[in-house]
Design brief:
Order of helices and strands: EEHHHHHHHHH
Structural class: mainly alpha
Distance between the termini: 62 Å
Number of domains: 1
Helix content: 55-70%
Strand content: under 5%
Shape: globular
Number of helices: 9
Length: about 270
């Protein structure tokens, strides 16, 4: 793994920033393909990708600062914008990115939940690529495996500063791989007769389930808030419970509505 790809003079080109930018670009490209395939709103995807990507970066950073690392940053306020040091919470990124998309869709009279269903697989694809950035930067790492197996990070990384040369669980790698599985499951679910909003809700539920269990392996922070659970796990539980309720509600709502009349093809 390489934190610094090369230097332009004294300015470092960091793998973290490059891969993170690539994740936003490729997620936007995937969303454009899915929207084009669906036949709706593809002309808005790039704009939403820009606004959602920038908002997601801000949200991910603020979420990490205030929920995970406030004990440090309250004494180092000027370092809050230093995202290249690591410390980006994906849950905050999703929330802020969704809010940016919600505002955009409302201003342009786009069906928010229908659009969210279309682009949900693209979001989880972007998250998977983003975990590559974490690996190269040496953050979002696991705790020691307690055996001769695991990842040993270079001395320049935060993981090494915390645990030294102890082998660590590959938490960020496994999350990126699970994200690909979720990506495929969402694509398959889109082919079913699902209710509006269910694809995006399923994305939130599946990712939250994965994140809840992966947190048991994470070692970049260990503060327990309630019942021995970390803040990310508590957030995941809330999303799983609320998401499951809304998933069922959307399905029942669709069944209660009369079916739309089929459009008859015009004879030539």
């Amino acid at each position: 793994m390489h934190q610094y790809l090369f230097f332009i003079g004294d300015f470092p080109i960091r793998a973290y920033g490059l891969i993170l930018s690539l994740s936003i670009i490729l997620a936007t490209g995937t969303a454009y393909f899915l929207a084009k395939q669906d036949g709706r709103w593809h002309e808005h995807v790039v704009d939403i990708g820009i606004y959602g990507g920038l908002s997601g970066i801000v949200g991910a950073r603020l979420w990490d600062v205030f929920f995970f690392d406030w004990d440090y940053y309250q004494h180092h306020l000027l370092e809050i914008p230093f995202v290249w040091q690591g410390g980006m919470a994906i849950q905050g990124g999703i929330l802020f990115g969704f809010l940016a998309g919600y505002i955009y869709t409302k201003r342009h009279h786009i069906d928010t939940w229908a659009f969210a269903d279309i682009v949900a697989p693209a979001i989880i694809m972007g998250q998977s690529i983003g975990r590559m950035a974490n690996l190269l930067n040496g953050d979002a790492f696991g705790h020691p495996t307690g055996g001769p197996f695991g990842i040993i990070y270079p001395a320049t990384t935060l993981a090494y500063q915390v645990y030294g040369d102890k082998p660590l669980w590959p938490a960020e790698i496994w999350e990126g791989q699970i994200d690909i599985i979720i990506f495929v499951l969402l694509l398959l679910f889109r082919t079913t007769n699902h209710a509006k909003g269910q694809v995006f809700i399923l994305y939130a539920i599946l990712y939250s389930i994965a994140r809840f269990f992966l947190e048991f392996l994470r070692g970049d922070y260990s503060t327990a808030l309630l019942l021995g659970l970390k803040s990310a796990q508590l957030t995941s539980l809330v999303i799983i419970i609320i998401g499951s309720i809304f998933f069922v509600w959307c399905g029942l709502k669709q069944k209660s509505q009369p079916p739309e009349p089929k459009k008859q093809k015009k004879r030539k």
